[in-house]
Amino acid sequence: MKGINLYHEVPCGTPDEFNVVIDLPKGSSNKVEYDEEGGYFKLDRVLHQPTFYPFDYGFIPQTHAGDGDATDVCLLLTHPTFTGCVVKARAIGMIKTADQDGDDAKIIAVPVSKVDPRFDELTSFDQLPKHVQEEFLIFFKEYKKLEKKKYDQIQINGVGTLEEAKSEIAKSMEAYKHAH
Fold it and tell me: Which of 61, 129, 135, 158 has the fewest CB atoms below 10 angstroms from its CB?
């Protein structure tokens, strides 16, 4: 029995409310990635330094971002989920990054109210505690520090608003339609 392809067959939703497929839960040091064509999760690498993801990390299915992969999502949750979990979410902003593969925006999102109402009042990245904002920015600058060839190419180009995040999602949904 063949399972569904989470990238091609799970609906993306809209820029206002979208599905997130979790690659790895908060607290992980394993960089698990979904093979978009093969339809399976694989361990890409273990982070090369003693650090962990400070959020659940995944992607929006049926999107195509600037780096050629699905659009990345940092999902804030009350409790970590698991690899392969699909969560309905909404954006609150984004971190504008680029790496060796090109533009690589990270959508910052929270679950929709039905999934977890604890985040209902959170509508922008700026509403996160300043310390948490810094943790996220530092994480993306530093998590590849011991991967010398990759580290030198990481760029953090600031934080985007909710509207910029929605625009990025819409653009990546449209790019998927043209690519597939």
Answer: 129
